[in-house]
Amino acid sequence: AVPLFLALKEACAIIEEEGIENRVHRHRQMARAVRAAAGAWGLPLFPKTDAVHAYSETVSAICIPEGISDKDLRGTVKKLGIEIAGGQDHLKGKIFRIGHMGAVGAPELIATLGAVQYTLRKCGLKPQDDGVMAACEVLG
């Protein structure tokens, strides 16, 4: 119980040091950067937004393009030392997810997007535009 308490105390101290408003702003900025990258690649986000569905500020779900398997996409990114999540249940093999919460900052996000962009090209997708550059524009 003591190590758990110490971990919680440290996590709260980290949040307090950054400031909750700054932390929320950073999460939103990271989310916008991932969405900009997906848009530049020409990949739709999940879910389709409407009056009751919105995008998350903590993780972005991006549709896997036709002709690219979840195994190839996530497997190649993992070989580059970066872990991205797949879809669950009925979305398995249809989406991949990039987290942008907690200690994630611009360097981690740009590295992740670079690995995904490389993988998309390696798997045969010709992205509409440079997703890494689009994300950097949001982050800059």
Overview of this protein structure:
The chain has a four-stranded antiparallel β-sheet with strand order 1-2-4-3, covered by helices on one side. The chain is globular. The longest helix is centred in the first third of the chain and has 22 residues, at 20-41. It has helices at residues 2-18, 20-41, 70-79, 106-122, 131-139, and strands at 45-46, 59-63, 85-86, 95-99. Helix 2 (20-41) packs parallel to helix 4 and helix 4 runs antiparallel to helix 5. Helix content is 54%, strand content 10%. The chain has 140 residues and is α+β, with helices and mostly antiparallel strands.
Quick summary:
Helix content is 54%, strand content 10%. With 140 residues, the chain is an alpha+beta fold.
Topology:
Layout: H1 2-18, H2 20-41, E1 45-46, E2 59-63, H3 70-79, E3 85-86, E4 95-99, H4 106-122, H5 131-139
Antiparallel strand pairs: 1-2, 2-4, 3-4
Keywords:
single chain; 5 helices
Strand content: 5-15%
Tell me the overall shape. globular
**Uncertain residue ranges:** none
Whole-number average pLDDT? Answer: 95
Q: How would you sum up the major sheet?
A: 4 strands, antiparallel
The SS-based structural class is alpha+beta
Could you give the order of the helices and strands?
A: HHEEHEEHH
